[in-house]
Amino acid sequence: MSLPRNLRHIQALAKQQANTVTLGQLLRTTRSDPTSLIRQGQWLRSQLPIRFARRLDEFLQLPYVVVHNSNIKQVFDIYIDTFESVSDFPTIITERDEADFVSLIRAQLEKHQQVARLVAEGYREVRHNYPHFRLDSFLDRLFITRISARILMENYIRMRTPQEGHIGVVQKELSPLRVLQDLSTEITRLTEAIYGVAPEIEFRGNLTCTLDYIPRHVQFMCQELLKNAVRATTERHKPRNLAGFGFTSEPASIPRVAVELQKGDVHVIIKISDQGGGMPKKIQEEAWQYGWTTADNEELAGYGFGLPLTRLHAQYFGGDVFMQALPGHGTDMYLLLNHLKEGSPSIEEDDPSTALTETENRSVNAP
């Protein structure tokens, strides 16, 4: 991987402080009038290059065998393209300038769709040849910036087309049950296609609870936890015929996966319980590392990025993910999601998105 032509510019911006924005500020400024759109476009044009410069600076400090992996190099090239495109964009003054800029942001977002997959594939290839390599801290910072940048870019795009029941990327009164039911249908279908059987998914608790949140984040986190529970349960309890080949059609022999919803003053709690055998304490700790997986089927299990990315997404807005595993029996996963209502303590007093950006500001020179 050759050095970028604007290396000094990247290094200079990487040392700058990124201006933070709370979710409350973002929601209050999400308006579709031309003045608001121009102002937000100007802010993004100045702030996105700083965020991407930091990640590029860290890419350039990675070991040779990492940056020369073809998948990792593709990610680097995407980040370079975004950095240069946004940095080189002329000053946004008129409505036409702003319209051109939002077209650029749309195009860059599309390019970044494949970043998570490319990173996961590249990291797996690197660790296959160099098992001692661990890049968890680098990946945490990379994906924190990715979450932040996507929220800012997607919210900017949606500002111009207000949607009923939404404020930018945030959906008001989102139903976790509806999200989980849609996911359970797809995960059950996929599990049956792979294994021939699938456990029933049971919903209980406060099924009418709602919260204001980013739908794509809820879908991602719930999908990762639910598919892990379904896969573990199926692999442990899948019935076999007397000859030991193939599967019987006895779904009652597979324990249910239980999904419980509760709503507190600050969080909505989603508990997903399975009887997939659990895991020893040492393995529980390893499960939060990037690239860790016990599954061979990528279609249902992914690349071992699911749990650490789920935790990053939850923690980004003050939530979290906890695991309680009983070796030999099963696992309970607890997903805590903050209410993202304007005026709530998590937004106005201690907005986690600001805290994370400030943490990133303090780690400019992190190794």
TrEMBL record:
PROSITE patterns annotated for this entry? HIS_KIN
The GO cellular component terms are: mitochondrial matrix
Where in the cell does this protein reside?
Mitochondrion matrix
Enzyme class, top EC level, equals transferase
Q: Which BP terms in the Gene Ontology apply to this protein?
A: regulation of glucose metabolic process
The record's Gene3D superfamilies line, in alphabetical order, gives: Alpha-ketoacid/pyruvate dehydrogenase kinase, N-terminal domain, Histidine kinase-like ATPase, C-terminal domain
Give the enzyme's EC designation: 2.7.11.-
**Domain Histidine kinase: from-to ranges:** 224-341
Q: Which InterPro entries match?
A: AK/P_DHK_N_sf, BCDHK/PDK_N, BCKD/PDK, HATPase_C_sf, HATPase_dom, His_kinase_dom
Region described as Disordered: spans on this chain: 344-367
Composition skew (Polar residues), residue ranges: 354-367
Tell me the GO molecular function terms.
ATP binding; pyruvate dehydrogenase (acetyl-transferring) kinase activity
Q: Which UniProt keywords apply?
A: ATP-binding, Kinase, Mitochondrion, Nucleotide-binding, Phosphoprotein, Transferase
Indicate the family of this protein. Answer: Belongs to the PDK/BCKDK protein kinase family.
The entry's protein name is Protein-serine/threonine kinase
